[in-house]
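Hello support,

Our group uses your service weekly, and this is the first time we've seen a run hang past the timeout. The protein is DUF6458 domain-containing protein. I'm not sure whether the cause is the sequence or the server load. Input pasted verbatim:
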Amino acid sequence: MGIGVGIFLIAFGAILTFAVDWTVGGLDLKAVGWVLMAAGVGGLILFFYFWNRRRAPALARQTQVREVSRTYDDSTPPPPPR
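Update from on-call engineer: The timeout came from a worker crash unrelated to the input. Re-ran successfully.
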């Protein structure tokens, strides 16, 4: 169940619980609304729990240090042959 389904269940359950005055034979819509809201909250909690477990912390790469040394001869070049 994704984040959208959890929010939808919470919203639909709240509508059934607080805004609807219908009577259905043998069915309490307020109780159904509370059950839907609880399912939505439970789904959101599970979604975030598994989503955080999937995001593993980044591991630092082991790097090797290589030292490079070069020598330069800055003296004046020899004179050209004659």
